[in-house]
Structure formats: structure tokens, C-alpha cells
Amino acid sequence: MKQTERRKSVSVYTRRIEAAEQSAYLEVPFDMPEGVEEIHVSYAVESHGEPRAVIDLGVRDGKRLRGWSGGARSEFRIGEEKATPGYLAGELAPGGWAVVHNAYKVPQEGCTVTVTVEFAYKTPRWLKGDLHTHTVNSDGSFTLEENAAIMEQLGCDFIAMTDHNTISQNYTYPRGTSVVMIPGMEFTTNFGHSNFLGVADPCDDFRVKDREDVNERIRVARERGAKIVLNHPHCDYCPWEWGFNVDHDWVEVWNGPFSERNQRTLDWWQDQLAAGRRLVAIGGSDTHRPDPYVKHAMPCTWVYADAKTADGILQGIGKGHVHISYGPEGPFAELTCGSYMTGDAVPSEASEGAELQAYIEQLIEGDEIRLISERGVEQEITARTGGSYAFSADTAGRTFYRVEIWRHFAEYGGQKLLAALTNPIYFAR
Q: DSSP letter string over 175-222?
């Protein structure tokens, strides 16, 4: 069963404030544990007399004040990338922290403040989102706020807004959303498109006239920390024509609704894998505007990440811990071999005599499960009922296994189309 929730703990502190402490700044100390991804602080004030107590709120870390909201808020959140307005996102360094109060007004009988601190820990888990979208910053009709709101409604965790040859979207991301914003730009040339993911400003000038210029743009993006994705490389209208030996990290095997162009890329990817290359496959909707077929998170890219941050998600992709489904509620498959999972390379000593374990959920009756290795399709299993299904396979002599799930979609006239796929789990030989 896929892990999608993070581990949490809660600490509660009380502080009685006397009338003599009015106008003083007071602290409620707490220890920040190791490995925290986000904190949520809330407080309540109980007055023991009249007039009603007014106690302001803020917080400090071990070095500085990290935020102040006075009497305007009763709670706040701080994470590595986002925080409640008035508070600074950033490192949640372990050690001594304190909730800071201003005892602005205290009755003669005093008051009691109860502070609740919830710690959400970095927990390896599956996160889902869309790695290829557009906005009004280029040729899309969605605002950044609309994109974020749609992804939030879909229950997704991240989005990359990859506008064509511009980076303005990376500096105007909405802050009041739970969706992680992955900086991106679609490097768009007359002979192919490539996403630069992970840095706000990967390229000073997108214009190119030849392969040498393309290599230079990619070099600069790489130097600045971007991950390079070849987008819809076998598209009928804008294929990648600069050659597949350009520097790149990942390939977009599934762009928008599944079609022949995606099948061509899927076949090319399988050939690369069979030849011994370990290349991570991702997906992206490439949505630009409201459309009956091209929609946010269709396909949906799932990433097993150590933290719900842009860096955590990109690191998970880099490890090949990626599953793609036709939408957020599509079927989901996990591959394991002992303690190793989808994307991992199982060392020869661990794979000797070991079996692949596959667990699939959110199936519907009639779904076709294909187990694929460098030899091609090795097993085809038709789901007789909906729900979940598990099976195992011998790993002897194989260099990888991956899974595809195919489904008859009524909304597409009953066509059998790809519903989900995993990246491979590899076996060292």
C-alpha cells in the first residue's frame, strides 16, 4: 500500500501570565526535533478576569525572530519553502526555539496561554502532481493562482509551471497554497522543446540557431542546477530534432492524452532500457487552457520523495522513484525486491534468487497488467475484479522489470489506452 501521509507529533505548553507581566515580551521555549518538514503553531488565551487578555504571537529560532503576527492570527505554519504571511520560510534547524508573546493586556487576575506545536516530519512518501503546465505568462490562459487552485482541488502535491522561454512565473508563484511550486521553463526552439526544472532562472537567452547553441543553453541550465527533460520527443508537430545525444536527465514519455506520439516515445524508451540505459520516464499534461481532454495532472506523475519540497521531489525523480497514471485517481503500481523499490538498482548479491514483488491498486475489472523486461512483455494478466492485485516474478537473468496497465476507456469510445506505468526496477548483473 502506497505511503502518502507524513509522520507527526504534537507538544502542548501552558504559561500563566500575571498582571505584573503586562507589556513584557515573554517566551514559551520548545525544542525543534531533527528532520522536521513543517511546524504548525496555534495558541489559545484563557482570561481569569476582565478586561479580556490580549496576547500577541510570534516565534524565534536559535538565531533570529522568524515571524510576528501580533494579535492578527491565532496560528501559523512554517516550512522550508512556504510559511504563513508574516513568517519566514526556510531551514527548520533542530535545537532551541520559542513561541514569542507580547503580554499586551493582562487582567488583574492574570491569564493562561496554551500553545500547541505540531511537528510534521520529513517522511518518505508518494506525492503526485504535474511537471508540465502553462500559464498567462506565455501562451496559456490559466493564471498561476488558477493552476494552483485546480491542483489543490485534485488533491495533488506539486506543479511545475513551465512557460515557453520565460521565467516570470517563477517569481510570482502564489504563496497561500499547499501545492509545492517547482520552478521551471520550457526551452522552446523551432526543432524541439525541453523542460528546465528546479531553478528559477536557468537561461539568460533562449534563442538558438544551431546544435552548438542548444548545447550551450543546456550547459548553462545544468550549471545553474536545472534538471533537463526532453519533452514529447516524438510529437507530430514539435518533435525533438536536435539528436538524443544532447545532455539530458529525463524523458517525457507521456504528454497529455495517450496517443500514437506517446506510444512512439514509449517504444523508444523501451529500446533504451533494453540496451542497458537507465533513463527516468516522467509525464506532464502540457495543459494551456480549459479543454475537454487536455487537463491538469492528466497524466499524473507520482514521485516517492523524502520531503514535500521542490528539491525533495526532484531528488526522488532522479532516483527513478516514479510512477505515472492517466490521472490522480488512476491505477497505482509498486515494484519491490527485498528492500529495493521502483527506480532502484538491486545489487547482484541481493537479486540472486530473489523475486520481484508487484502490488497494484485502484484497478477496475478488465484492466490488463503487463510485466515487461528487456525481453519484452513477459506476462499479461487481466483483472477479473476491481481493487488490488499482487504477483511475483523470477528475476533470474533479467536486467529490469517494469509494469504497464492498460484500460478500456468508455469516454474514448472504449479504446484500450495506457492507464499507468512504472519506471523500472533494475537488477545488477
A: SS-SSEEE-EEEEEETTEEEEEES-S---S----SSHHHHHHHHHHHH
In sign, the C-alpha dihedral spanning 410, 412, 416, 419 is negative
Is the whole-model pTM more than 0.85? yes
Q: At 320, which amino acid appears?
A: G
Q: Domain 8-121 falls in which CATH fold?
A: Jelly Rolls (2.60.120)
Q: Are 186 and 132 in contact (CB under 8 A)?
A: yes
Q: Is residue 19 within 8 Å of residue 143, measured between CB atoms? A: no
Instruction: Report the distance separating Cα 30 and Cα 14, nearest Å.
Output: 11
Q: Judge whether 314 and 227 are in contact, CB under 8 Å.
A: yes
Report mean pLDDT in 10-residue bins for the chain, 429 residues. 88 98 98 97 98 98 98 97 96 98 98 98 97 98 98 98 98 93 98 98 98 98 98 97 98 98 98 98 98 97 97 98 98 97 95 92 98 98 97 96 97 94 95
What value, to the nearest 5°, has the Cα angle with vertex 340 and ends 327 and 199?
55
- The total number of residues shown for the chain amounts to 429
Task: Tell me if the domain spanning 331-429 has CATH number 2.70.98.
Answer: no
**239: its cell numbers:** 518533435
- 14 three-class SS: strand
Place of cell 501562451: 139
Looking at domain 124-329, its CATH superfamily turns out to be Metal-dependent hydrolases (3.20.20.140)
Contact 164, 195 (CB under 8 A): no
Cell 516524438, located at residue = 234
DSSP 3-state of 152: helix
Q: CA gyration radius for the chain?
A: 25
